[in-house]
Write a structure and sequence with these properties.
Length: about 80
């Protein structure tokens, strides 16, 4: 997986901080790819220790950014 320089730096700092941290960047910047790379790195580390990585993904239950062309507010009644 090819990461942007900011993503690689972020992951390196995350590792240095004991695999803890928050990624705070704008929508569409690549947080999902950074998260996938983080899971991959941590899974490899844990696997070498004979451990298994379990991941829980939590997402909001409402639309953050409407699809292109959709001008209706998803929170308003029809």
């Amino acid at each position: 997986m090819q990461l942007y320089p900011w993503q690689s730096e972020c992951l390196n700092r995350w590792e240095e901080n004991g695999y803890r941290g928050i990624v705070h960047v704008i929508t569409g910047a690549g947080k999902t790819m950074a998260a996938m790379a983080a899971m991959d790195r941590l899974e490899k580390k844990l696997s070498a220790e004979g451990k298994t990585l379990r991941v829980c993904v939590i997402v909001p239950t409402f639309v953050i950014v409407p699809k292109q062309g959709n001008t209706q507010n998803p929170c308003e009644a029809a």
